[in-house]
Structure formats: C-alpha cells, structure tokens
Amino acid sequence: MGVASGKFLPMPAYDSIRPLVVALREGGSQAHLSLVVREIEGNELDPVGGVIISDYSAELGADGLEVEALGIGYPLYGELFPDHVGAYDKYWTEKAKEKTANIDLPKNR
C-alpha cells in the first residue's frame, strides 16, 4: 500500500463542502463526504484508507490546500509512482546492507 499527497486544485463544486472540510481539519473524519480521487484519464482510484483534504487556504492562500489518498494498493501504486517505489526499495536495500556490515561476528576461540 502507498500514500499519495499533493496540492489540491479544487473544482467549483468544492465550495459546497469547503466549510465542512475546514470544520473537520482538527481531527474529525471526512469519511461521510465520500471524497474520490481520479487519475487524469478519469479512472477512479480506490484508496482503502480514504481521501483527506487539508484546507488552510484562509491562512495560507492557494498553497494551503492539500489532498491525500491513503492506501493505494499494489500494483497500481507502483504503476502510478514508479520512481517513488524505486527510491523506497533502494533506500531500504542500502539500510539492510549497512546493518549487515555493522554486525560484529564472534571470533573463533
């Protein structure tokens, strides 16, 4: 599973739920809003952890809008974000090598 987040560019319909999103930003669930994320081609993603909008636009302007899709399954996550998956795999492979290299084996007596 993977998580994707980024700048939220709302459609005009967002104005109808904006007050709810802002009211819930301090920890309330947005599950009842039935938010969805679509690829640019229009295919709907099904993130098992849901979709969350963070709206701090009143304080930060357009930079204060962010969206997260939580729990995008594989292999779809790898298809959508191959560079991220590759970097993740490389990072943990290197960490495992470092850990193995730092293990002191007992010496024969």
Plain-language structure description:
The protein has 109 residues and is an alpha+beta fold. The protein has a domain at 2-77. 32% of the residues lie in helices and 18% in strands. The chain is built from 4 helices and 3 strands; from the N terminus they run E-H-E-H-E-H-H. The chain has helices spanning 18-23, 57-60, 76-80, 82-101; strands at residues 2-7, 50-55, 65-72. Strands 1-3-2 form a 3-stranded antiparallel beta sheet. It is elongated, with a radius of gyration of 20 Å.
List the helices and strands and how they pair.
Elements: E1 2-7, H1 18-23, E2 50-55, H2 57-60, E3 65-72, H3 76-80, H4 82-101
Antiparallel strand pairs: 1-3, 2-3
Strand order of the largest sheet: 1-3-2
Series of secondary-structure elements, N-terminal to C-terminal: EHEHEHH
Structural shape: elongated
Radius of gyration: 20 Å
Number of strands: 3
